[in-house]
Amino acid sequence: MPDTSNSPVNRKSSVTEQTLSLNDRQIRYTAFAEWQTLFENEKPVAEMFHVAYLAEVEQATLRPLTFVFNGGPGAASAYLHMGALGPKRVCFGSDGSLPKPPVRVVDNVESWLSFTDLVFIDPIGTGFSRSLPQDDKDTKQSEKANSGEADKPKETEFWEVERDLKALGEFIGRFLSGHQRWLSPDLYCRRKLWRLSGC
């Protein structure tokens, strides 16, 4: 893996300590909102955004770790994050409808954090995840723009099945290394249409 210490991209991350209040107990956890730089041929090509919730336990490696993402392309993890599985959720109406703004955020007593740590991933081109400018490609795109040729958004290459899998695999590997969680049982959950699948 490339050395990321001198990466040209250095976005500020956020790390906070939180508590989830359930009916029978409280769960103290750390919330991370960060970008992970992805590489190709030793060059940074994209930034993948994620929000992770890691419970405070004595042996983190024994606790399951679930990576959650939408079945895109074009869909961030926000619906699963703030609507279903995260430790906080939007307060919906009694019939499940969205209330008028401003909406309230409340503890989610049905959060999966009660039995697994959670990592919500925005695939490239969704949420806050983006591809990075490439000198040679940007020059060609500028030439195309000047000549009137239409060009696809740069993120579309990450919407191909193999490239999407490669990006997610690289992100997961770096996350497991960065948080020393290679020994944790890993689970993967993606949303397809309006139901949960692949869990």
Number of separate strands: 10
Count the DSSP helices.
3
User: Can you give the mean pLDDT?
Assistant: 81
The helix content, as a percent range, equals: 10-25%
Ends: how far apart?
Answer: 29 Å
Task: Assign the structural class, choosing from mainly alpha, mainly beta, alpha/beta, alpha+beta, or little secondary structure.
Answer: alpha+beta
- Report the portion of residues in β strands: 25-35%
Task: Round the Cα radius of gyration to an integer and report it.
Answer: 19 Å
Overall outline: globular
The largest β sheet comes out as: 8 strands, mixed
Poorly predicted tracts of residues: 1-6, 144-150, 193-199
What is the succession of H and E elements? EEEEHEEEEHHEE
Sum this structure up briefly.
This protein is α+β, with helices and mostly antiparallel strands and 199 residues long. It is built from 3 helices and 10 strands.
Overview of this protein structure:
- There is one protein chain.
- The chain has 199 residues and is of the alpha+beta class.
- It has helices spanning 78-85, 135-147, 161-178, and strands spanning 14-21, 26-40, 43-55, 65-70, 88-90, 105-107, 117-122, 130-131, 186-192, 195-197.
- The strands form 2 sheets. Strands 1, 2, 3, 4, 7, 8, 9 and 10 form an 8-stranded mixed β-sheet that branches.
- The longest helix is centred in the last third of the chain and has 18 residues, at 161-178.
- The radius of gyration is 19 Å and the shape is globular.
- Residues 1-6, 144-150 and 193-199 have low confidence and may be disordered.
